[in-house]
Design a protein that fits this description.
The chain is mainly α. The chain folds into two domains: about 5-225, no CATH class; about 245-400, no CATH class. It is about 75% helix and about 0% strand. It has helices spanning about 5-50, 55-70, 80-85, 95-125, 130-155, 160-180, 185-205, 215-230, 250, 255-260, 265-275, 280-295, 300-320, 330-335, 340-370, 370-400. The longest helix has about 45 residues, at about 5-50. The chain is flat and about 75 Å long. It holds the Pfam family EcsB.
């Protein structure tokens, strides 16, 4: 297999994997996207109606675009065996990595376009910029993004990479700020010349070693895969994720009495798996914190309720895969407990975990609104939502596993 066909094969496998998971996630992902878009659009419109000052708008645009442009994760599709089998072909992998860089550049333009389009109304209203000039600015941002990806790749594993990261952040912030602040074509040309000078300086400076840092590249590839699988696990079961287990005795001690009573065996097992497994406990905590934080700052009470119940449903979707946690364990399969009883105990655990979050969310709403009646209504409707929507949906879903 040639180097060109190797990259094409890896790329096709990657795309096929993404399509497979997005097909599984489509329902939950679509609903979440519509919900987040509607809520975000509403509050963004309210923000624009408040007519933010030029200074605030400029700082917000600069900060957001700097973050998007500076962040340059690079996917190479490398695998662990490549460090052995491709070691002798290092000098021939130049075309492989060029294709990878081009792929990463194209992929990372999408969030840049999306973010820039969101910022356009703010820039036109507060900074009085025209559409043609904004288009010119975007071209500069595209060039700046390519420069960042290249610099990040060249100095990816060097001891100077942190220095270059700070340099990139400073350059990105300065260029973006000047683009939107002065809004002059002459300044625009000057910034382009400055960027060209930075490229020239890079080439005249001594470059880091050309040897391929296999461990670093493979580690970064695995991290990107884990991030994608963690995101996918919110909506569907992900068998590729390694089960990480922590003892967490400070959490598991309280369920020990259940074991000694010799009752609710699978309730105990699934609770133990939930508390010790990072796949479940970690995402449960993160979604809970995110939901509580959003509920506290969102002013509209109806939106608070929608967010609370939406997050509860997302948590239940994440916990469904816990049902299959012991599916490959022969000893657990020998337990003389019927499937219906096991399912009832599992659903009891789901009900308890979601109810705990409902109480937390209602407490946050109570603190934010200081109205006991609203907090009580959130709890009542939430219990109905859990009992008649979440639990039946969860039961139907795990029955099909």
């Amino acid at each position: 297999m040639s180097i060109e066909s190797l990259w094409s094969s890896r790329f096709q496998q990657h795309i096929q994997n993404i399509i497979t998971y997005f097909a599984r996630m489509i329902n939950g992902l679509l609903y979440s996207f519509i919900f987040i878009t509607c809520v975000g659009a509403y509050y963004y419109a309210q923000f624009l109606k408040a007519s933010p000052s030029k200074g605030i708008s400029l700082l917000l645009i600069t900060a957001v675009l700097t973050l998007i442009i500076t962040r340059c994760p690079i996917r190479t599709f490398m695998q662990k065996p490549d460090a052995v089998y491709l070691l002798a072909l290092e000098e021939k992998l130049t075309s492989y990595f060029k294709k990878s860089l081009l792929y990463n550049y194209i992929i990372q333009l999408f969030p840049l376009v999306f973010t820039f389009l969101i910022m356009v109304p703010l820039a036109m209203q507060s900074l009085q910029l025209t559409v043609p000039f904004l288009c010119t600015i975007f071209i500069v941002l595209m060039i700046l993004k390519g420069w960042n990806i290249y610099i990040h790749w060249i100095w990816r594993d060097s001891h100077e990479k942190n220095i270059w990261l700070i340099t990139r952040i400073a350059c990105n912030t300065l260029i973006i700020y000047m683009l939107f602040y002065i809004a002059n074509i002459i300044v625009l040309g000057g910034l382009l010349l400055l960027l060209a000078f930075a490229f020239l300086l890079l080439y005249t400076k001594k470059q880091p070693t050309k040897r391929i840092p296999w461990e670093y590249i493979i580690e970064q590839e695995e991290k990107m895969n884990i991030r994608f699988y963690q995101f996918a696990s919110i909506f569907t079961d992900v068998p590729q994720m390694n089960k990480q287990v922590n003892k967490r005795k400070w959490l598991t001690n309280w369920i020990e009495p259940i074991l000694h009573k010799k009752q609710a065996t699978f309730f105990y097992l699934h609770t133990l798996a939930f508390l010790r497994g990072n796949d479940y406990f970690g995402i449960y905590i993160r979604l809970s914190i995110l939901g509580a934080f959003t509920l506290y700052f969102v002013p509209n009470i109806y939106v608070k309720g929608a967010i609370a119940y939406g997050v509860l449903y997302m948590i239940s979707m994440q916990l469904r895969s816990l049902w299959k946690y012991f599916s490959g364990n022969i000893i657990v399969a020998l337990y003389p407990i019927s499937t219906d009883e096991r399912m009832n105990q599992f659903l009891s655990l789901i009900f308890m975990l979601i109810s705990i979050q409902l109480v937390v969310f209602s407490g946050v709403v109570l603190i934010a609104t200081r109205q006991l009646l609203i907090g009580f209504i959130i709890v009542v409707i939430g219990m109905l939502w859990i009992k008649f929507i979440i639990i039946p949906k969860t039961k139907k879903r795990i029955s099909s596993f």
